[in-house]
Amino acid sequence: MSYTYFTLIRHGKPDDCDRLLGRSDPELTDAGWQMMAHASAGLEAEQIISSPRKRCSAFARHFASSQQLPLQIDDNWQELDFGDWDGELLQRLWQQPEFNQYWQQPFDNCPPNGESTQQLLQRVSAAITDLSNRYPGQRLLIFTHSGVIRLVLWWLLNGQHSGNAHLSQVHLSHAAKLDFTTFKDENQKLWPQLAGLQQSTFVDDGSPA
What we know:
This protein has seven helices and six strands.
């Protein structure tokens, strides 16, 4: 039996973090870069994978180069496409009934001209299955986003397609880490197992908390 080991790291603090960031593509702040350096320090991996968004991929390129590891930029690991809401100020969005409805029931509502929660779940779970098949026994380090990590956590715990527990009941700091494993049994069924969720211990003054 071969396990595949996954570590997902949320990007550090970006510019425009007062806005809803899906396909919007701001750079990391200096503090955000330092958060990711702190989160990835000492991690071992055979494969580095990243969302194409700059708040993930810029540091991923640096890390992969510094460790002399292969890097894959994979659209499956980018944040949900929030459509017409993408890049809007969160303060304004909270004043819209449609946004509140989406927050309360994300499986039943979709951002206007955006991507549904079911579509995000399908692409991310398919990516996990594909990587598990391609890299049995290897350690994978994936730089991704809050929405992706929250939904992976929900998937690991076999959540139901209702409610918003993955949004409202999980605190996820910038540069937080989610660890899990997968393995296939004799019937080729994939079994995922949660290994841990760790918040960032880095603070914006440039030193560990």
